[in-house]
Amino acid sequence: MLVLFEMSLGYANFKVLNEKKLQEVDSLWKAFETPEKANTIVKLKHLEKFQDTAEALAAFTALMEGKINKQMKKVLKKIVKEAHEPLAEADAKPGGVIKEKLNLSCIHNRLKFGADKVDTMFIQAISLLDNLDKELNNYIMRCREWYGWHFPELGKIILDNLTYCKFVDRNNYASVSEEDICNILHLCTQMIEISEYRTQLYEYLQNRMMAIAPSVTVMVGELVGAQLIAHSGSLLNLAKHAASTVQILGAENYGLIYHASFVGQTSPKHKGKISRMLAAKTVLAIHYDTLGEDSSSGIGVENRAKLEARLRTSEDRGIRKISGTGKALAKAEKYEHKIQRKRRKRKKGTIMRTKRRQP
Predict the structure, then answer these.
(1) What CATH number is attached to the domain comprising 134?
(2) Total number of domains constituting the chain
(3) Using an 8 Å Cβ cutoff, are 203 and 222 in contact?
(4) Whether residues 190 and 279 fall in one domain
(5) Rounded to two decimals, what is the model's pTM?
(6) d(CA 245, CA 204)
(7) pLDDT of 255-297, one tens digit each?
(8) Cα gap 68→174, rounded to integer Å
């Protein structure tokens, strides 16, 4: 098998020496750790260099459009003349054109980078994290009920679930039958392992979110940010939503944004207002993470500082009126004063009548 590799230097044609190694996909990267190891699998047959950067740019532009330029045709004709073997091509578009125009059997793998594939990693991670939380809650409930028959007071003494399982795992069981304790210990061991894996998964999710969407992570946290992306399907799809849509995304009692830690800091009467403001600033952060050239979290830190300042002022003096006019408020106050005057006149009349009736 031959391999055509496009790079900034030019076109390289390799001969695969050991095709069995290609079947071991998971460990294939180990064969290319050093040049010495790579020489045992592939051998360079021909290298067609670009003359300048303009020629390299034209070649890669043609590749992106699924076309073949003159220099690539030259390389492929040499391959056709010298060897009658299948050619491996990374991209599907050039592979189809090569097979159609030059009648050269071409196989390919879709190795092209896609942003959605990166989003898939932490979409699956947040889904798995939710499932692990449900399983852990179910397991600890069974464990407490099961072991509670032998030591019912322990549930009130130790409230932390992981500590409870570790205590059960390391305790002496004189009054417990061997068959019962074997099953209880097996359940506790599973819970401890799942809890440790959950901690690792949460750290992985934090790192991935800070790498892909740092501004969104600063605004709403890694959990809420990952859940927003998971509901949309990808970060690019999330960037297409308006602020009002992002605010109610995930709904079930006012949406995911409403349950962010920043909204939880506010008083109940201000939560609706703050969640709207947070959704608007989060959309800006999403656009910056998706389409911006800089991968820093600067805009997220700046917007969060503004929201915190606004939150402090609103807590001190109350959120300003966002609808209605001052005239309507004044009319309502005047109307209330008239009612109060009528009530006072009625009270005075009743007092005068009672005084006259007295002997």
Answers:
(1) 1.10.287.4070
(2) 3
(3) no
(4) no
(5) 0.54
(6) 28
(7) 888 888 888 888 888 888 888 888 898 899 888 888 887 777 7
(8) 79
